[in-house]
Amino acid sequence: MYDVIIVGARISGSALAMVLADRGYRVLVVDRITFPSPTSSSTNLIHPPGVNWLRRWGILDRLNEHSIPEITHYSLQSGPARLVAPLPSVEGVGYALSPPRISLDQALADAAVAAGAELREGVSIQELLTENGVVTGVSGVSKTSGKMSEKATIVVGADGKNSRVAQLVDARKYRDQPVLSKSSWTYWEGLEQEPLVRTYRKNRRHPFSWPTHDGLSIVGVAWPTDTFPTGDPEQTDRSVIEAFTDVDPEFAERLRQAKRGDRWLTGSVPNFLRTSHGPGWALVGDAGATRDPITASGITHALLGADLLADAITDGLENRPMAEAMAGYTARRDRLIGDHYDYTRDYARVADHSPEERALIAAMSRSPRHGQAMIGLFATVVPPEQFYTRDNFRELFGYLGGAGEVPWTSRLVRWLIEGVPGRPAWASGTADRLIASKLGPMGELLLRSPVPGGSGRRPVSAPTA
Ligand SMILES: Cc1cc2nc3c(=O)[nH]c(=O)nc-3n(C[C@H](O)[C@H](O)[C@H](O)COP(=O)(O)OP(=O)(O)OC[C@H]3O[C@@H](n4cnc5c(N)ncnc54)[C@H](O)[C@@H]3O)c2cc1C
């Protein structure tokens, strides 16, 4: 009998196993794969909060065999508007990392075992054991020893987006949307790079690139699913380089001087949240929340989920009935990741920015505080509800450019904020509504934020070390 059985031993499963085993619980973690196991379905950018968990848990020390540059800046270029800003820090970690998944997954599994968890590889879980409607264990097949079954106080599905555990407990999906974007990406050798994540948006294409490990770089482009170009590898080379030439000819030239180091990979996933706890079971990582990879937030949020679930399970093993301890877990996770999930879904439409949005990106490039907060938002450091506030955007309009760059609608908003004599509340309220109407789902956050002058949330300053 175990305290916890975890199905899936990559990011969320091994992280959870490590934390719980370290607290002294009997943990069994199983995976149908055997380590080391490559995963060709994911790039590997980890934002500062994720890097901070890996640092705290000693995982970074296990990746020393690789040279992994610290990525300190992210950029967003949309037409002529270009924002480059340093990442805000989380507990002194002001950088992202992009370690190879094969080594990261292995390091997490090794750390779980070192903490005292039992890892069984080559075990595929097929069914759940239940008693009176409560999940009490798992059964499956081991590649080496045939049929197996084990019991535990709680069973966790950390088994990815097609979670078998979620399927067996019939976990409900919500806020779901089908695949929105599809990307082609791979590793390049010999590409001259700054410590920068580059993202671009133009002509319904989203080129991206960043340095990863051992001199390699990720290079790719995301398209809306309906315009994703198919073709042989040479055609994909041309499509990708053409997309970069359209947005950044200088970087495209660097690409021409470098060499594609692997075959092209294609990635796309649907978007959903799932109810992530019930009698005797819980879900973590992609099993409970899967989103488009366009904001590269899956690993960071899988680590966040593992941290959160570890505390809920600990509470249930120590202080009160498990059902009571787990009661708020799904809602707590959604409060932490839900707004960023919506931001990601909106971004994954790969829609071109409107002239008003471009004017705001240009304004952010003139205001270091706003620029860093925007980059921090993308990187899951700054919560969207802290960024999309009336205060923050009214102030941002003070950084708008000249008439040639700014559409008349944005100039009208600036006049409503700054130009109406006496600055009456009706004028700034109208400005807020006009701003919100251009921000998609994030506009709702802005309208929910406190009216300046009243009590409530303050505009965001990006956290510092
Ligand atoms: C194209 C693409 C690019 C991405 N790029 C990034 C990025 O740059 N940065 C980022 O943060 N995220 C990225 N992601 C998302 C990221 O890959 C996932 O969020 C992350 O892998 C989730 O980790 P996990 O441990 O929850 O699940 P997974 O990594 O999917 O692991 C699940 C494990 O469960 C095991 N399993 C499944 N079923 C069973 C079973 N029945 N029995 C036993 N074992 C089972 C599997 O073998 C697997 O090892 C990307 C995703 C895609 C598709």
UniProtKB/TrEMBL annotation:
Molecular function (Gene Ontology), one example: FAD binding
Transmembrane segments: none
SUPFAM superfamilies reported for this sequence: FAD/NAD(P)-binding domain
Domain called FAD-binding: residue spans: 2-333
InterPro entries in the cross-refs: FAD-bd, FAD/NAD-bd_sf, Geranylgeranyl_reductase
Lineage top rank: taxon: Bacteria
Name assigned to this protein: Flavin-dependent dehydrogenase
